[in-house]
Write a structure and sequence with these properties.
Number of helices: 3
Strand content: under 5%
Shape: elongated
Mean pLDDT: 89
Number of strands: 0
Distance between the termini: 58 Å
Order of helices and strands: HHH
Structural class: mainly alpha
Length: about 70
């Protein structure tokens, strides 16, 4: 069921700039933001888990790996 929300003019301008195409709905823009946020959260969780498992390298180790 659709609902109406109130946003400031500043937020509306930001949402307008985030539209992929001119006639995209604000609902579409917000859905994309939520999707991106969820993907980022999953990626961040994975990176944290990998760090806990010791799958990280120091700057020095990376330098040796890439030959610097």
């Amino acid at each position: 069921m659709p609902t109406t929300i109130q946003i400031s003019n500043n937020i509306k301008q930001i949402l307008d700039k985030m539209k992929i195409f001119e006639r995209e709905t604000y609902n579409g823009v917000i859905e994309n933001m939520i999707e991106d946020n969820l993907e980022l959260n999953d990626k961040t969780k994975k990176e944290i888990e990998e760090a806990r498992e010791g799958r990280t390298f120091s700057h020095e180790e990376v330098g040796k790996i890439i030959g610097l």
